[in-house]
Structure to design on (82 residues):
């Protein structure tokens, strides 16, 4: 498969699931180029943005696993090809 560059935006609605989110991201460390997290201090919400490079199957698998975690939403956007 062709490699693609993309982003995955992760909305964590309850930070008690953060260890599980981090575990899933670590499983895909080979495709994660960069990660930025922004916790909202006055609430339990956090946003994580990931820059990824890999084939669409791996990028979608990461996004899908993150989105299946309770209180987490994840969306991926990828380039056509590089």
């Amino acid at each position: 498969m062709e490699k693609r560059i993309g982003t995955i935006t992760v909305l964590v609605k309850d930070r008690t699931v953060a260890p599980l989110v981090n575990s899933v991201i670590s499983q895909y460390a080979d495709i994660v180029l960069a990660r930025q997290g922004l916790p909202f201090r006055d609430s339990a919400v956090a946003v994580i943005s990931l820059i990824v490079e890999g084939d669409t199957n791996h990028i979608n698998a990461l996004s899908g696993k993150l989105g299946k975690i309770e209180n987490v939403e994840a969306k991926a956007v990828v380039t056509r090809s590089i």
In short: The longest helix spans residues 56-67. Helices lie at 18-27, 56-67.
